# Entry
Amino acid sequence: MIARTYEVVYNRIFVLSIEESEELVCSFNVNKGNHKKQLPGAMLVHRKKETNTLYTINSLNALIRKENNGIADSGFSVDWTKYSNSLLVTSNNDLKVLKTKVYQLINL
# Structure
């Protein structure tokens, strides 16, 4: 379904396990603006390549506020090493840091 909906860059899908959970998530690269629709349950995330950190814009803003005494400052420098191999998301405006591990690599 992923490969039919998106043009997957590098023809790889990473299946990640969420530690302390039985959940799995898929991560893959697409060319920006090169997809026609979004799969149900899918969300756009960004990646800090050096630390394998996946994050949403909302979670980045929540992280900055958390680390910067409640102040949202676009110039704040995040220490990404604290969030290595993690998925950062928000739930009810609270930051959730989910530790991840590669479960499977799918080559298309």
Q: What stands out?
A: The chain has a mean pLDDT of 92. Helices lie at 2-5, 57-67. Strands lie at 8-18, 24-30, 46-48, 53-55, 86-91, 94-107. The two ends are 12 Å apart (CA to CA).
